[in-house]
């Protein structure tokens, strides 16, 4: 799985450096088309699962009382993963885009790179947060991205 991500990232870097934004767009389109063909082939050749009948009818579960500390924790996780991670990944991708643009790379290429980088940063932060057990530990990844983006912004 990790090797697949490394292969996709290296292919994107190679296409971006060789052909710019056009190379990245063409490579991404070809990759999505080939992945669609592989998924369609798998869907057509995989046999359907065997149906089993249940011996008894499942009854609805009784309502569980609301645990307010648990609800607040879940809301905090949502706020960190969705809102804070999105803001941090957008900020870091935008500052990298601006730094590369000011370094002389064309605007189309830097914009394509930023659009590619933003979801990767969001995914990296969310992946890190899956192993954290406390909200404070979960907030470290987006805060690090915000600090790094701010340093890039201030130095360029």
From TrEMBL:
Keyword field: Membrane, Transmembrane, Transmembrane helix
Descriptive protein name: MFS transporter
Transmembrane domains' residue ranges: 75-96, 108-129, 135-154
């Amino acid at each position: 799985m990790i090797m697949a991500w490394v292969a996709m990232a290296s292919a994107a870097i190679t296409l971006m450096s060789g052909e710019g934004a056009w190379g990245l767009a063409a490579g991404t389109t070809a990759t999505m088309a080939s992945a669609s063909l592989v998924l369609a082939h798998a869907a057509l050749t995989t046999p359907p699962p065997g149906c089993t009948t249940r011996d008894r009818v499942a009854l609805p579960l009784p309502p569980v009382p609301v645990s307010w500390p648990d609800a607040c924790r879940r809301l905090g996780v949502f706020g960190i993963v969705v809102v804070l991670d999105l803001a941090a990944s957008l900020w870091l991708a935008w500052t990298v885009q601006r730094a590369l643009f000011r370094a002389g790379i064309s605007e189309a290429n830097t914009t394509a790179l930023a659009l590619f980088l933003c979801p990767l940063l969001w995914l990296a932060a969310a992946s890190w947060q899956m192993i954290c057990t406390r909200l404070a530990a979960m907030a470290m990844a987006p805060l690090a991205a915000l600090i790094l983006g701010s340093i890039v912004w201030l130095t360029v």
